[in-house]
Design a protein that fits this description.
7-stranded mixed sheet, Metallo-beta-lactamase, Chain A, single chain, binds zinc ion, about 25% helix, globular, alpha/beta
Length: about 270
């Protein structure tokens, strides 16, 4: 299983000299296995992902929810228009808006010249919701709805292939004593990719915004018996130095922690 992070930033993209190490593109993760690619989210990171030529023949694009930072790159992801690549886009229905509605809205000419549905001949859509289990190619995917993100929640994904497990839990807020449903869901994961947008001090001002701290992420990783933790969805105000500080803090609770950065590759 090949994993590469193409965007680890949350809320909106940023570009500054003191953001070079972790990068400024919003969420996009590529997982390859055999001839299959699985991509989580279509933030601006999906543009470089698309250009990397690492996208394989069969693509499953899983959207966690439809906030701008998770979909804004979709019209510019060239593989969705390819004749030789089959792409299935799956996402939840949130506040009665499904994945196909979102793509239709993004295709309105007022937003960009690209009409995704018209040009994407090998593009199909499906809704995925809490409790669903999807098998496609080498991948088995389970979905868990977390209500801990305004206003309609978010889907968390457990992805299995080649005997390895990756859990993606972005845009979710921790609870006192940790999110027990998530701890079960992430049980024994090889890699847990968890929201860690705020420092503890910032969280006190942003409670209810639907994001976690490094401490919350580390607690979930530890209680779930995960092997490795990647801190994810970095705040756009956080410089490389601040993110390194969050990484250090999480390691005090869960030593095998890394802050996700653009270009990070894991081979499991
Ligand atoms: Zn987000
Ligand atoms: Zn969000």
């Amino acid at each position: 299983m090949y994993i590469e992070i193409f965007g680890a930033r949350g809320t909106h993209p940023v570009c500054r000299q003191d953001y070079i190490k972790f990068g400024g593109n919003t969420t996009a993760i590529l997982i390859n296995s055999g001839e299959d690619s699985l991509i989580i989210d279509a933030g601006t990171g999906i543009i470089n992902l698309s250009r990397s030529k690492k996208v394989l023949k069969n693509v499953l694009l899983l959207l966690t929810h439809y906030h701008f930072d998770h979909i804004i790159g979709l019209p510019y992801a060239s593989f969705i228009y390819s004749d030789s690549i089959n792409t299935l886009v799956m996402g939840p229905s949130i506040l009665d808006v499904g994945v196909e509605d979102v793509v239709d809205i993004l295709s309105l000419p007022i937003f960009s010249p690209f009409n995704i549905t018209d040009r994407g001949a090998n593009l199909s859509f499906n809704t995925i919701q809490d409790g669903d289990v999807v098998e496609r190619g080498n991948f088995k995917i389970q979905a868990l709805h977390s209500p801990a993100h305004p206003r309609g929640g978010v889907l968390l994904y457990r992805i299995e292939a080649e005997g390895k497990t990756v859990v993606v839990a972005t845009d979710t807020e921790g609870y006192v004593g940790s999110d027990r449903r998530l701890i079960d869901f992430a049980s024994e994961a090889d890699v847990l990719i968890h929201d860690a947008q705020y420092t503890h001090e910032e969280y006190l001002r942003h409670q209810g915004y639907g994001h976690s701290t490094p401490e919350m992420a580390a607690e979930v990783a530890s209680k779930a018996g995960a092997k490795m933790l990647l801190l994810f969805h970095h705040d756009p105000k956080h410089t490389d130095a601040i993110i390194e500080g969050k990484e250090k803090r999480a390691r005090e609770i869960f030593p095998n922690t890394m802050a996700a950065h653009e270009g990070m590759v894991l081979e499991l």
